[in-house]
Design goal:
heterotrimer, A mainly alpha, B alpha+beta, C mainly alpha, A: mainly alpha, 77% helix, B: alpha+beta, 2 domains, 5-stranded antiparallel sheet, 3-stranded antiparallel sheet, 8 strands, binds iron/sulfur cluster
């Protein structure tokens, strides 16, 4: 739970770095005041939540189908953790240099009411190593409920970043917060590398 | 304005000087007062929690603590119960414990204090195994892992 | 009090420096000996006298030569080394090993250090308890005394704690001085925000797991104090992390960069101290009238607190640990210890004298115990 929350929290910050500035002019286009912003934000978050529940379910079934024996589960999960965590760190470093948002395309949609929903979809399934890590975690869980819980924690962590965004324009130290977010993403990657290494070494030692 | 700022700054600096001068002679007094603040208690996850009941067996007293499930805002599903043997502990300990006092034994714990080795045999679905177990300055202590719902 | 702005030298004549040392001499005598010196044990007597005279000699030299960091660093590094020596020797005497035992955890006997503070705040607020297996009051390094000491030092010195009070900082400070010139010069200064990310993560993970995660998983100083016995894969990985972080951030990087990389890039306590710099009475100031913009101070700062732009504007960032290294490198005394609210370039010597008294007093008294203990042990070992 804690690691999923932390992963969500840190990847949410990275997401904010790249996508926040593209998405939020649309979510807060100033049509209808605060209520409209809150509504759009809620639709955006609700879409993400639904997608995450679907992903949690898929990941868990996938895990049940392929990660059958304990030892396979340990090795595959451990190796995927290490691999995706390395990509996550790489990704967070890269993001600092190249701030392009994959969700930008969604904002070109004609019907603006669909923008928060589509943004929610793209934001939750858009390629991100943190998502791959949480999918791996979901697949390795003992029960579907645990997989849901892991995704819920991930969702909660990542959503925290979006809540103060209506005030983002007023934040003086945006750059600083972005930098801290990037480092936090890298650190979350480091946590998963260590988790992966412990799983793999434990697997080797326990035969 | 500058004058006010300067005076305020220098006053603040002198207050710092006074604080530093009284800090070390007054440390034990300050610490005592600080130590009585409401949050200055060791969390039961570390202290082992309050003692729920004790039983005497010769020179050795068995103390069973209240189960600890403390989380940040609410109880967690996993926790432990601490059991202490205080006083002159025998070489071999074997006790059947009913930690929740429902007249149904929950686990049997065996300790060989000489070897040293410990073992726990769960008798209830809520007991998941032995946590840490070690000789202490007062005798022996062990923590048995629990879950809230069997 | 001087008011001139150009090149006021902090140097003093021999007599004046001696006069400034006298109050420190008296106060440290009272605090180090407890006011009632006991000379019955020769080893301890020698240790106390060497510590006491050594410290006051360095304080005298700070006034006489006008250099701050050069003499501060000597005590600061000795503090770090002797504290580790004291801890390790105690552990070996009591337990025959550097690792703490399950009994220490069960009996809440783990010494507390200030690096736990960032992790205990949230749980203390929400659960009204401390998530650390230590002692609240009494015993070695109890929680109440350590928090009080840290609080006082932080309110008065701000991040100055990291150059005058922290018993770990001396490690990377020491290693950062081993080479005359840095091998690696270009380091992006955005890394200095890393401790805030570490702070965010450890504060949250500690609150959610109720475990002081930094101590459990990250702290490089476990390599020179005490750590969990290696009994399984997890404890082996932890030991690996402690040793690699110590080797990388405390030894190797400071040597090649001449910067305090552990303190600048990792320590979550450093992040809190950095924020506290905003309220403390003492700050570094730049006298733009005296500054020739040679930027020697920027290169010498081990904490990434100075930038060329900042110097031009006359600002020192909140990352400053008030070590005085920049002052020592400035031939014009343009960068100087100052007091909040007092304009830069004015009352330079007054501010320095006051700051030195306060910060040195804290360092001298706080560090005296481990120094005396180490000297005492060495004396017993040799004679
Ligand atoms: S940054 Fe941390 S380790 Fe370094 S001196 Fe400050 S508190 Fe100590
Ligand atoms: S600005 Fe000067 S006093 Fe502050 S940390 Fe850097 S060198 Fe030390």
């Amino acid at each position: 739970m804690t690691d999923s929350f932390i992963l969500g929290l840190s990847s949410g910050s990275a997401c904010l770095v790249t996508c926040g500035m593209v998405m939020f002019p649309y979510i807060m286009a100033g049509r209808g005041g605060v209520m409209k912003i809150v509504l759009d934000l809620s639709v955006f978050l609700a879409t993400r939540l639904v997608i995450y529940f679907v992903l949690a379910t898929l990941a868990w079934y996938f895990g049940q189908a392929f990660l059958t024996s304990g030892i396979v589960r340990t090795f595959v999960t451990g190796s995927l953790y290490v691999m995706f965590a390395i990509i996550l760190i790489w990704y967070s470093i890269g993001r600092k240099k190249n701030m392009k948002c994959p969700a930008a395309i969604v904002t070109k949609v004609e019907d603006k009411r669909l923008v928060p929903v589509l943004l929610g979809v793209v934001n939750s399934i858009g390629f991100c190593p943190a998502l791959l890590l949480i999918l791996t975690k979901g697949a390795a869980q003992g029960s579907l409920a645990q997989s849901w819980l892991a995704f819920l924690a991930f969702f909660t962590g990542s959503s925290l970043w979006f809540l103060p965004l209506p005030f983002a324009g007023k934040l003086k130290k945006k750059q600083v917060i972005e930098t801290i977010g990037i480092f936090a993403t890298g650190l979350a990657g480091a946590i998963f590398i260590i988790k992966g290494l412990i799983l793999i070494t434990g697997g080797i030692l326990n035969g | 304005m500058n004058k006010i700022k300067t005076t305020a700054g220098i006053t603040w600096a002198f207050l710092g000087l006074i604080l530093m001068i009284i800090l070390f002679p007054g440390l034990s007094g300050f610490s005592k007062s600080f130590g009585t603040l409401p949050f200055m208690k060791i969390n039961p996850r570390y202290s082992g929690g309050e003692v729920a009941f004790t039983q005497s067996a010769g020179a050795c007293t068995l103390a069973v603590h209240k189960p600890v499930f403390n989380g940040l805002v609410r109880d967690r599903n996993t926790g432990f119960v601490q059991v202490d043997w205080r006083g002159k502990i025998p070489d071999q300990i074997r006790d059947t414990i009913d930690y929740d006092n429902d007249n149904v034994p929950d686990f049997v714990i065996a300790v060989d204090t000489k070897k040293p080795a410990s073992d726990c045999c769960p008798l209830s679905g809520r007991v998941t195994g032995l946590g840490i177990s070690s000789r202490t300055s007062f005798g022996w202590a062990a923590r048995i892992n629990l879950r809230k719902t069997p | 009090m001087d008011n001139s702005s150009i090149a006021v030298s902090p140097k003093k004549t021999f007599g004046k420096a001696l006069l400034y040392t006298l109050p420190m001499f008296l106060v440290t005598f009272m605090f180090i000996t407890g006011g009632k010196p006991d000379f019955s044990d020769p080893a301890r007597t020698v240790a106390i006298l060497v510590t006491f005279f050594g410290m006051n000699l360095l304080y005298f030299l700070m006034h006489y030569s006008g250099k701050t960091d050069r003499y501060r660093a000597i005590i600061f590094v000795i503090f770090a080394l002797t504290l580790s020596f004291t801890l390790i020797r105690n552990m070996i005497l009591i337990r025959n090993s550097m690792s703490f035992s399950q009994a220490d955890i069960l009996e809440c006997k783990i010494p507390f250090c200030h690096l736990v503070i960032p992790m205990m705040i949230l749980p203390a607020a929400l659960t009204k308890s401390i998530i650390f297996p230590g002692t609240i009051l009494g015993g070695f390094a109890d929680i109440a005394s350590m928090v009080v000491l840290w609080l006082a030092a932080t309110v008065v010195l701000g991040r100055g704690f990291c150059s005058w009070g922290c018993f770990y900082g001396g490690w990377d400070d020491g290693f950062s001085r081993l080479r005359k010139k840095p091998l690696v010069k270009k380091i992006s200064d955005s890394w200095k925000w890393m401790p805030f990310a570490v702070l965010l993560l450890v504060a949250l993970t500690a609150a959610l797991t109720m475990i002081p995660t930094y101590c459990n998983w990250i702290c490089p100083f476990k390599a020179v104090t005490e750590f969990e016995k290696v009994t399984n894969v997890e404890s082996a990985v932890k030991a690996g992390v402690f040793i690699s972080l110590f080797g990388g951030l405390v030894v190797a990087l400071p040597v090649v960069t001449r910067k305090r990389t552990q303190c600048s890039f990792l320590c979550p306590m450093g992040a809190i101290s950095t924020l506290s710099n905003r309220i403390t009475p003492f700050t570094m100031k730049i006298d733009t009238n005296a500054c020739t913009q040679c930027f020697k101070c920027v290169d010498s700062c081990p904490m990434f607190a100075l930038t060329r732009e900042g110097i031009k504007e006359g600002t020192v960032s909140m990352f400053c640990s008030k070590c005085g290294k920049c002052m020592d490198s400035c031939s014009r005394n343009a960068i100087h210890f100052g007091i909040r609210g007092v304009p830069a370039g004015t009352r330079k010597n007054f501010s320095r004298n006051l700051f030195l008294f306060v910060s040195f007093l804290f360092m001298a008294v706080f560090s005296s115990q481990p120094i005396v203990f180490t000297l005492n042990s060495l004396y017993n070992l040799i004679f």
